[in-house]
Specification:
The chain has 325 residues and is of the alpha/beta class. The strands form two sheets. Strands 6-4-5-7 form a four-stranded mixed β-sheet. A three-stranded antiparallel β-sheet has the order 1-3-2. The radius of gyration is 26 Å and the shape is elongated. Bound molecules: zinc ion (ZN) (2 copies). One zinc ion binds next to loops.
């Protein structure tokens, strides 16, 4: 698996001097996955170079924390652990009390609750730590589980899975909307959007397969991003509502609500994530949803106008057409 390493010359904190020893330590650290104690890192460095002192490793770790290359995590073991933060999304931890390994995950629902509580208590939160202690699958069952691997890749995989689920539910929604819409122009718009969703879906799936080529085990690695509400696709409820019988205006309005919800969802999370492939996927997807939203809003206005004109020529409904605007 290829890891892109940051250019550490750019990460030089003010007054700090970049030495070859430091570079060596940083490189060893960035090659690791998971959570290392300072002593773990000393052992790894000593294997490569006996001359580097414990004090130098400690100092460099602190320098990395200050420069934003490393994050300090406390698992309640009486010592800190370190993980690298470059292209490493923010996350929570599951910690096994038996083997002392930790596993990473992120949940939009937990984050939502944390934000809600903080807002209700007029509290400005800067960081939240969620740690779940217990026994991991391997320690409990003795079966070897697929290791977590690189969280940057997992993050991109899960972001793509959510985008694909959304695209699929969007496709289903527009195909259904095209079937139920009576207005010829409105039907054409829904058909066009359905084929656009089909095309996007193809692209997302191709990207997903590219990702799998970078790590053959990627499919079977544990879920990293948990999005309870988004998992079945953000258009699923809208597609269901169409089946209950709606008129053309209502169909467009449901589409507008779905696209708006989808745009906001991907934009909100995309902006919160650290620079990563997953972030890119979310932000690009948010832009596509925005374009669909604008298109539907324009169509909705045009339809209301057209229907108003029809009603006006037939002598009724001028008032209701104005009211709908
Ligand atoms: Zn364990
Ligand atoms: Zn971690």
């Amino acid at each position: 698996m290829a890891t892109i390493l940051p250019d550490i010359t750019r990460l030089k904190p003010t007054g700090g001097k970049r030495s070859s020893k430091r570079e060596q330590i940083v490189n060893v650290f960035l090659r690791q996955e998971g959570h290392l104690s300072a002593d773990d890192l000393v052992d790894l460095i000593r294997r490569e170079d006996q001359r580097i002192s414990r004090a130098t490793v400690y100092r460099t770790l602190q320098w990395m924390v200050d420069a934003g290359v490393a994050r300090k995590v406390d698992f309640g073991e009486g010592r800190f652990r370190f993980e690298h933060s470059y292209r490493h999304p923010r996350h929570f931890h599951l910690i096994c009390k038996t083997c002392h390994r930790s596993f990473e995950f992120l949940s939009s629902d937990i984050e939502g609750i944390v934000e809600e509580v903080a807002a209700a208590r007029n509290f400005t939160s800067s960081q939240s730590v969620v740690q779940i202690y217990g026994t991991c699958e391997e320690c409990r069952t003795g079966r070897t589980a697929t290791p977590q691997g690189h969280s940057d890749l997992l993050f991109a995989r899960d972001a793509l899975r959510i985008a694909i689920a959304t695209e699929r539910s969007g496709l289903e929604f527009y195909a259904r909307a095209a079937r139920v819409t009576k207005d010829a122009r409105g039907r054409k718009i829904f058909q066009d959007l359905a084929s656009e969703e089909q095309e996007h879906l193809g692209k997302l799936e191709a990207r997903y397969h590219e990702l799998l080529e970078r790590d053959p085990q990627l499919e079977s690695r544990p879920t990293f991003l948990f999005f309870k509400d988004a998992a079945k696709g953000l258009f699923a409820d809208g597609a269901e509502r169409l089946m209950r019988g709606v008129n053309d205006q209502q169909a467009l309005m449901i589409g507008i609500r779905c696209e708006r919800g989808s745009h906001r969802f991907f934009k909100k999370y995309g902006e919160k994530f650290e620079d990563s492939e997953g972030k890119q996927i979310f932000l690009e997807f948010a832009d596509e949803e925005r374009a669909h939203l604008d298109l539907l809003v324009r169509e909705y206005r045009a339809l209301v106008k057209r229907q108003g004109r029809v009603r006006r020529t037939s002598g009724t409904g001028a008032v209701s057409a104005r009211a709908a605007r």
